[in-house]
Design brief:
single chain, 210 residues, alpha/beta, TIM Barrel, 2 domains, 6-stranded parallel sheet, 9 helices, 6 strands
Length: 210
């Protein structure tokens, strides 16, 4: 914990074996539901060796695997991880490379190319997820470009993740100013309008939360 009490460190340092021990305790649930483990973060590919080892061990034990990623990772690293991944939960935040860099610090070119490459791989399912951020990526132009790109991949479904203000506490713990109004939510009407954009490109939107 920070001496000033501004930051809190949560979580534990664990080995692959320690994680798998906990995973094995839930094996009956996985077997009954057909589910498995999801490696997420943060960005799990930022710890590529651990991510790879964990997914490989899970696959060797017959446990289903999923990777939750922003897609900003060298293909050589991602490609190896995909050898032990059943499903990729892939975030698309913005289609304009300049806007993407302004909001996230990096361009989206590598991200889009990785999405295309995952599609070309056999044995790996990809699910595109689009977080919808007020005045960030919710313009009609960007939503249409996003839907057009997803459709070009040959996909028929998209997960929509509407913005919610629950992250405010995390910002405060990090000593950062929260950039959104407290209680700022999308209305059902606005979300329905967003969903119609994706439907117009032949996609079935699945609203998650919001």
């Amino acid at each position: 914990e920070c001496p000033e009490g501004a930051f809190i460190v949560s979580g534990d340092f664990m080995t692959v074996d320690e994680v798998m021990k906990e995973v094995e305790e839930d094996r009956p649930m996985y077997e009954n539901s057909g589910g498995g483990i999801t490696v997420s973060g943060g960005e799990p590919t930022a710890q590529p060796d651990f991510c790879l080892a964990l997914l490989k061990t899970a696959k060797e034990k017959g446990i289903g695997t999923a990777l939750d990623t922003c897609g900003y990772v060298k293909w050589e690293i991602l490609n190896e991880i995909l050898d032990y991944t059943d499903v990729v939960l892939f975030d698309l935040k913005h289609m304009d490379p300049k806007a993407h860099k302004r909001f996230s610090g990096v361009s989206n070119e590598l991200i889009l190319e990785n999405a295309r490459r995952i599609i070309e791989r056999e044995g790996v399912e990809i699910k595109i997820r689009v977080p919808i951020i007020p005045e960030g990526n919710d313009s009609e132009e960007n939503l249409k470009d996003t839907a057009k790109f997803i459709s070009s991949l040959g996909l028929k479904k998209v997960d929509i993740l509407p913005f919610h203000p629950w992250a405010g506490q995390s910002y405060r713990l990090l000593g950062l100013e929260y950039p959104f109004a407290v209680g700022e939510w999308y209305s059902d009407k606005k979300l329905e309008e967003i969903e119609e954009i994706f439907k117009s490109y032949g996609l079935e939107p699945n609203r998650m939360g919001g």
